[in-house]
Structures are given as structure tokens and as C-alpha cells.
Amino acid sequence: MTPEPSLRATHSRRPDQTARIMADTGLDEATLHRLVHRFYERVRADARLGPIFAARITNWAPHLDRMVAFWSSVALMTGRYHGAPVPAHAGLPVGRDDFDRWLALFRATADEVCTPAGARHVIERAERIAQSLHQAVQDHQRIPAMPPSLR
Ligand code: HEM
Known about the structure:
Blueprint: H1 15-25, H2 29-45, H3 50-54, H4 60-76, H5 85-90, H6 96-113, H7 116-142
Residues 49, 52-53, 56-57, 66, 70, 83-85, 88-89, 92, 94, 98-99, 102, 126, 129-130, 133 line the site of protoporphyrin IX containing FE.
């Protein structure tokens, strides 16, 4: 089991903003670590989403580390994540129902793990990002129907 990181956000590129968000929301690295780990336990056990992830992720430890860094960047503005979510999702065989399910599991986990203000903070961001990833998936699914001159 991965040890939980320190409660203090020691590695933020914007320490003042990170400290303010932590004070306002009760979020910290340890809470985000729990959020990510419990969320993906639910995802992996889910009849709809589980198989989609299982077909693509065999080594979960690096994925979970990356997702904690992602949420640290998104929720606490630490700048810990350096990656590209759009290409990782654009080609997935998913639609509105899959994103709705993802968000339902995320909301339930956030409500369980975070303070009410912390849950609002991460859920709002998850909804916005899910919307843009869903848009990227739809754009990708439309490309084959375009005339060659527009590709
Ligand atoms: C239907 C919903 C979703 C599915 C099935 C899904 C599936 C996946 C899969 C299979 C990967 C691993 C890709 C790879 O390593 O090749 C991945 C990566 C990732 N996902 Fe999702 N995802 C979904 C929604 C979301 C949402 C809503 C977010 C953000 C709020 C998100 C954030 C990420 C991030 C940050 C990565 C890592 C990208 C990277 O740096 O390589 N995903 N996802």
C-alpha cells in the first residue's frame, strides 16, 4: 500500500494560493490521495466502467500516482501534474452514459471523503473537465464522417 503523503502541501508552485484553497476547502494532499484511491476502487468494481479501465490499465500504481498529482494540480493548484488528458481519452469507446456514471461515482466518493466545501470544489472541477473530455471524444468520433478535405 502506498504511504499517504504529508498533510502539508509542501511542493506547490503557488504556495499562497494553495494555502488559501486548503484553508477554504479543508482539502490537502492526504484527502486527495484518499479520494483518488477510493474513487478508483469504485470504478474498478463498476459493471459499466470497470471493464473499460481493465482493458487499458494493468499496472494501477503509476496510474493512481498520476491521478493524485492531477487532482493536486487541479484542486490545490500545486502544478504537480504534467500530462495530457485529452489524447488519453479522445479515442475511448465511451459516451454520455459513461461520463454520467464516472461523475456519479466521483460525487459519491467526494461527499464521503471531503468536507462539504471540499466536495463542492472538486466536483465542480470534475464536471467541467468531464464536459471538455466528452466534447473531445465526440469530436474524435465525428472525424471519420468528415470529407477528406476537412480532415
Ligand atoms: C467515461 C469516463 C472516463 C473513462 C472511461 C476514463 C478512462 C481513462 C483511462 C483508460 C485512462 C488511462 C489512459 C492511458 O494510460 O492510456 C485515463 C487516464 C486519465 N484520466 Fe480518465 N477516464 C474518464 C474520465 C475522466 C475524467 C472526467 C477525468 C478528469 C476529471 C479524467 C482524468 C484522467 C487523467 C488526468 C488521466 C491521465 C492522463 C495522462 O496523463 O496520461 N478521466 N482515463
